[in-house]
Amino acid sequence: MAPPLTLSIIFAFCLIPLSYSLPFIVLHGISDKCTNRGVTQFTELLSSWSGSQGYCIEIGDGAWDSWTMPLFQQTAIACEKVKNMSQLSDGYNIIGLSQGNMIGRGIIEFCEGGPPVKNLISLAGPHAGIAAIPLCGFLPICILLDALVKLEIYSDFLQDHLAPSGYYKIPTDIPEYLKGCKFLPKLNNEIVNERNSTYKERFASLENLVLIMFEQDSVLVPKETSWFGYYPDGSFDPLLPAQQTQLYTEDWIGLKTLDEAGKVKFINVTGSHLEISRSDMKKYIVPYLKDQSLTAMQLMTTKSSSHKWVSSMWNFLMNMGRFSEDQPLLSVVY
Known about the structure:
This protein is an alpha/beta fold. It is built from 15 helices and eight strands.
């Protein structure tokens, strides 16, 4: 039988707050891929600064499929990938880059049986929709292409073969949008008779929703969609802030719930689309990736932490006994 002093030490250890860095995944934007230098460096820097392990989740072949694979299919693939990653089983954070936010939110709202998502950190996400072709803008050729796309944007063919059509929202054609657009109306719970309380419950369960908008963003039209801001139904004017949209006031997805609880961070940074400085990454992203405060007892009861518990207890006792081995930091499993 263990001496009373030993039991007291073990019990006290169980109540000590320990550092536990949740892993994070990165979902890249359109025309990009996980192996591209920018995405690789972005992920590695955040891992280094936060002390948490990051994984870029690739869907299909990356760049081509980001354009041509419908968003529900992309979400389904991402869902299966996160469910099969044992490293994420105790929870994880999502960083979405542009269109990657559609997949990230799809994982949160639609993915049955997936591990819990703690924080969603969104960079230039088209959350409320877009009113112009991505990577184009207001040049004459873009306006012409935009007009051509609008003629058939809600057709089954484009919805099944052009990913951005899944969040293309023409303010002056809302009935056709709700009828033909296959992704965003469901993601944002916009269809009156099809609103799903489970989607709202899952999205509202986030601990933090970090919405980063780029001041000089000319890719997203309007750029305020990064904050869930958009045009009113039936008009391109005025541009409404998130808090004045029906999605917010009627709380279709739990955005209002999160905001009133102080869990939504509206952040505006200098730069064009996805052009973020290292200092802004450290200031606005890293704090939401850093250590989570858990007690040793809580760690012991999580799904995959039994071996971490044994290792931590052993190292703690060695440290108490002034052994020379260094005590390792508790971190996610690689």
